[in-house]
Amino acid sequence: MALEPSIQNFESYKAAQTMARLSTICAVVLGFTVIALVCLIITLFPLKEVRPMLVTFKDKGDQIVRIEPIIRNEKATTLLMETLSRQYVTLRETIDLQTEEIRWKHLSLMTGPQLNEEFLSLMKPENQDSPFKKRQEEQVTREIQILSSTSLAPSAPNIFQVEWISHDRHKGQIIGQGHWVSTLTVSLEPQEVSIENQYINPIGFTVTHYTLAQKGGTDAQK
Predict the structure, then answer these.
(1) Do 162 and 66 touch, CB atoms closer than 8 A?
(2) Which segments of the chain have a pLDDT < 70?
(3) Residue 97: DSSP 8-state
(4) Which of 115, 122, 128, 185 reaches 20 to 30 Å from 208, CA-CA?
């Protein structure tokens, strides 16, 4: 009977020792887990990026999409902006007397308000000096061929030059050619557009200044 307290004390000691070991093992495992997670976070931190976000709002039954600028690495952003600059020049400088309405709509979603107003005022038929009106009366169309595009960064950030050739046609025959350089000042700006137009310019590419210079050609019209 005298041995029973000793046995009970021994069993209690063993149980406490086992619990202490388990606690130590859990603490070590938890410590290694925390260290591993910290290392993983540090490793993945440079991969953090801001992606474009499209948020739809409802206002009196109309769906409006807010387009946020896209931010990526510098090389990818420059290439994307250069590609869109080429597209912009094609939309703006082509005159086929058929698709102007849809092209100018797309163009307006890629143009700053002031520049867009200036362009539409220049091209509208009511303007006696309208290049579009003149070509419409003479039935002269213009096709363009992009030759090259260049970013002027770092000396001139957000400025791109697009070199292209124009082919003026009348009744299918080429009557003149021109060699041109368009210079664009661009940025990525938030926009609010209707739901059906959200895919036309999903990154907020915006041209705020545009100039055109002729390098050479034969009887080319502006």
Answers:
(1) no
(2) 1-23, 25-34, 36-72, 217-222
(3) S
(4) 128
Give CA separation, 12 vs 3, 8, 15, 17, 90, in Å. 14, 6, 5, 8, 86
Query: CB neighbours (10 Å) of residue 46?
Result: 7
Q: Give the pLDDT of residue 56.
A: 45
Q: Please answer whether residues 176 and 217 qualify as being in contact, where contact means their C-beta atoms are separated by less than 8 angstroms.
A: yes
Contact 146, 167 (CB under 8 A): no
The rounded Cα 111 to chain-centroid distance in angstroms is 14
The tokens for 6 are 């000793």
Cβ proximity of 190 and 67 under 8 Å: yes
Structural domains in the chain, sorted by start: 73-188+207-218 (3.10.450.230)
**What is the 8-class DSSP label of residue 203?**
T
| Half-sphere exposure at residue 127, Cβ-oriented, CA atoms within 13 angstroms | 14
CA distance 94 to 90: 6
Yes or no: say if 125 and 65 are a contact pair by the CB < 8 Å rule: no
- At 198 the pLDDT is 87
